[in-house]
Amino acid sequence: MILLTTSIKSIVTFETIGDAMAFESLANDKKILGRLLPVPHSLSTGCGIAWLSDKDSFQTIKEELENAPYLDAELLLYDSSSKQVVR
Amino acid sequence: MSISKKSMLFGGLSLGFVAIMLAFFGNPANMAICVACFIRDTAGAMKLHSAAPVQYVRPEIAGIVLGAAGISFFRKERQSVAGSSPATRFILGMIMVIGALIFLGCPLRLVLRMAGGDLNAYVGLIGFVAGILTGIVALKQGFFLGKAKQTNQTSSFILPIFLLAILILSVTTSLLVTSSEGPGSMHAPVAIALLGGLIFGITSQILRLCFSGSIRDALLIKNYDKLLIVGLFFTIVLIYNLASGNFNLSFANQPIAHTEHLWNILGMYIVGLAGVLLGGCPLRQLILAGQGSSDATIVIFGMFFGGAIAHNFNLASSGNGTTPEGRIATIICIFILLLIALTNRKQRA
After folding, report:
1. CB distance A41–B140 less than 8 Å?
2. CA–CA distance, B125 with B115 (Å, rounded to integer)
3. DSSP labels for B143-170?
């Protein structure tokens, strides 16, 4: 069950920076609201880059990633207040 | 989503305080803590090179790795991973240190020199940013050294144990060399240096601090968190230098620095580009190694090797300037970096 709280975000993590930049272009073309940011510390100890969007964009992002299999990416629902992956 | 502003403030100020403490207690001027130089010094103590003025086991290096190892274990963030182009990473580590020794400092020392008024460091900053920009182009073109995989835990303990053993040997035996003059003879007491390194390692691990990453993130995704921490670090050291009379705004007569602008730029260009290709500056490599990355451990060993050959083959600069061998090596290193950037691309299905 998805909690109805604004702390729930859609987060996409990527294999490479190139994939992150490619997704940013795709998201801008498809008018998916969001931005790139460093991967949250609770998700990774690395220096990678992730895409952050609101939870309502989850399904749209999922469909776009399914249509772009060349991107190595993982889509998550993330609760930024508890710093836990919801889904 | 990222670390809190309070953590950043505390972290940046803590790191600045550590640098001030290390300089106050005896580390070389404008080199309170320099990963490349200190790895070079440690390599010298191990007789990997024989440059007499720069031989000393720097406890800060062991402290940083052990601090990162300890805090990552405590926070359950320790992961033993390996397998991401280790041979390439070894070469990149070697080249990164050679570039740093052409300029005479890693990005950490770059900022310390800037805070000391060394205008040559501001010139080097141009090269550093240019190298990072080149690295960003490579990243956007799909540069990828391959995914690291989980591996046996033993591998992740190699570097912390190695550095601890070297440190213990240096303190308890006469097997390792200590310079009697020059930068290698200038050092804080072992306990203070080790403590400083531990604080640096713990803080840098928590903050995910990376000097090349701070500029990379600012340019690539307009995130300024890491740059804020670096800025705070710079500010507190600058304030101390101004208050203590250690601020000298000039090109000439700077401690352990030279005024050859082109080679300062190219030396730091190498460090910036190598740092982006490796996924972290020299400090970040120590942190990653402490966290369990054997790939970062390979980079550190490459850095030891680079520090050794920089002095064995007269590549390293000095206060008198660069050497002919160093200038040739700079061009070769840039060529190799660009070749690595071009030939390591993610294969798309």
Report:
1. no
2. 12
3. B-----EE--HHHHHHHHHHHHHHHHHH
Sign of the Cα torsion B290, B295, B296, B301 reads positive
All residues of chain A having their beta carbon less than 8 Å from the beta carbon of residue B221 are 35-38, 49
Q: How many CA atoms does the CB half-sphere of A43 hold within 13 Å?
A: 28
Q: Which residues in chain A are contacts of B208 at CB distance < 8 A?
A: 38, 41, 45, 47
Neighbours of B253 (CB within 10 A): 10
ipTM of the complex: 0.83
- Spell out a b/e string for B174-186, using b for 16 or more CB atoms within 10 Å of the CB, else e: eebbebeebbbbb
Bridge pairing between strands B149-150 and B81-82:
antiparallel
Q: Do A18 and B144 touch (CB under 8 A)?
A: yes
Distant-in-sequence, close-in-space partners of B153: CB < 8 Å, separation ≥ 6 = B80, B292
The total of other beta-carbon atoms located within 10 Å of residue B247's CB is 16
DSSP H or E stretch at residue A13 = strand A8-14
Structural contact between residues B8 and B15, judged by C-beta atoms closer than 8 angstroms: no
Q: What is the pLDDT of residue A4?
A: 44
Chain B residue with CA closest to A81: the answer is B1
Q: Which of B202, B197, B161 is nearest to B74 (CA)?
A: B202
Look at A47 and B284 and tell me if their CB atoms are within 8 Å: yes
The angle at the Cα of B214, spanning B208 to B216, to the nearest 5 degrees, equals 120
Q: How far apart are the first and last CA of chain B?
A: 33
pLDDT tens for B283-322 read: 999 999 999 999 999 999 999 999 999 999 999 999 999 9
Distance (Å) from the C-alpha of residue B175 to the closest C-alpha of chain A? 37
DSSP state, B181?
Answer: S
Residue in chain B closest to A19 (alpha carbons) equals B142
- Summarize chain B as % helix, strand, coil (round to 5): 70, 5, 30
The verdict on a CB contact (< 8 Å) between B2 and A38 is yes
Q: Phi and psi at residue A54, in whole multiples of 5°? A: -80, 165
For B1, the closest of A16, A72, A80 (CB atoms) is A80
Query: Pick from B48, B8, B22, B91: which is nearest to B340 by CA?
Result: B91
Q: Is A54 helix (H, G, I), strand (E, B) or coil?
A: strand
The reported pTM is 0.94
